[in-house]
Design brief:
With 227 residues, the chain is mainly alpha-helical. It has three domains: 58 residues, no CATH class; 60 residues, no CATH class; 81 residues, no CATH class. Helices cover 58% and strands 11% of the residues. The protein has nine helices and five strands, in the order βαβαβααααααββα. The strands form two sheets. It has a three-stranded antiparallel beta sheet, covered by helices on one side. A two-stranded antiparallel sheet has the order 4-5. α3 packs across α5. It is elongated, with a radius of gyration of 26 Å. The N and C termini lie far apart (63 Å).
Length: 227
């Protein structure tokens, strides 16, 4: 299913607007989703998280990255010389190349250009190899917390709906990789537990309902026989 998935998050719509304009100019479909911080969190002084989410179709990730790179490369010569990356050492710039997921696309491309100017040959193939390696690592499924899994089984036996809040995410949760592909967040063993917890909850809920109904009807019948 070619659904809209998260491409990038922003603090507000103003920060997202340049990217949205590029998408409009290049015919890339997008959706925006705004997350509003709960009032109690704001009053409590919690740190406000990214709250403006830009989503595109997974099949458009490669093209979106290409057009954004073209815009950034075109604008690099116009960047002020006091931009902080210009004072980075060669080793610090190399760290940006080695950890592309921790930096913006603009910083990555600036670092690449600066390294090339300093005689360090950074090819697009090298960057892609690093990105592919990181994508592969990110795509590795996680193992669920054994404590929460056990707790989920206990709640399911009791017919507690909270067991679904534990079981279903383990079963169906997915994550979006940098290339736009979607993979299951948890390994098969954890997903099996999530499925078992969900099925057990359904079964125990039915049993509790039937038993409860039986007690009610028996109690009503007992009262009827007394009057």
């Amino acid at each position: 299913m070619n659904e809209f998935v998260l491409f990038q998050s922003f603090i507000d719509d103003n920060e997202a607007m340049p990217v949205i304009e590029v998408f409009k100019e290049n015919g890339i479909e997008y959706e925006v989703e705004q997350f509003k911080e709960p009032l109690d969190s704001i009053l409590a002084g919690d740190v406000i998280r990214d709250k403006f989410y830009l989503k595109i179709r997974s099949q458009d990730f490669h093209r979106a990255n290409e057009v954004l790179d073209q815009v950034i490369l075109k604008n690099i010569p116009n960047i002020e010389k006091d931009y902080y990356l210009f004072s980075f050492s060669t080793d610090e710039l190399q760290e940006i190349i080695n950890n592309p997921g921790e930096w913006s696309r603009q910083d990555l491309l600036i670092a690449k250009n600066l390294l090339n100017e300093r005689g360090v040959n950074i090819t697009e193939e090298k960057i892609n190899t690093i990105k592919n390696s990181l994508t592969k690592q990110m795509g590795m499924p996680e193992k669920g917390n054994s404590g929460w899994i056990i707790f989920g089984y206990v709640l399911a036996l009791l017919g507690g709906v909270m067991s679904l809040i534990i079981g279903l995410p383990y079963l169906v949760a997915k994550k979006t990789l940098p290339d736009g592909s979607r993979v299951y967040a948890y390994d098969q063993g954890t997903r099996n537990h999530g499925k078992a917890i969900s099925i057990l909850w359904i079964g125990m809920t039915i049993i509790h309902f039937v038993i409860g109904s039986g007690f009610r009807y028996a109690f009503i019948g007992f009262l009827g026989s007394r009057f």
